[in-house]
Amino acid sequence: MASLNKVLLIGNLTRDPELRYTPQGTAVVNLRLAVNRKFRNKNQELKEEVCFITAVVWNKLAETCNQYLHKGSPIFVEGRIQSRSWEDAASGKTRSVIEVRVERVQFLGQAPKATTEAIEETPDEQSSTEASWLEESEDKSNES
Known about the structure:
By secondary structure, this protein is α+β, with helices and mostly antiparallel strands. The chain has one domain (about 5-115): CATH 2.40.50.140. Helix content is about 20%, strand content about 45%.
């Protein structure tokens, strides 16, 4: 029998990423994602429901998410459903959770804005190589 475990989600982070490291030094981050669904009920009234999902990201991708994402960031997540269980030390009860094990993340928001000093370049700051290349290009276009 065929099976498929694939999840595609687009939503916004409800809080800042929670980066931590395993005892072996592997980075892991939890992303708490809010996914909205708009629909019309039987009376044609527009309704909206929100589903809150925990997405778990590992390794270098976890560190990247921690560096660039923050509360409210819109993201696309691709992964698979994963369940895990553990015994709660305080109550002694077995606890379980279902979450998304992330394989890919795409940031949908705007990149952080750099300072204007870093992006703006005045003509005086052009390198001599760049200036000579521009002059050669202009000379060649004038010869034609």
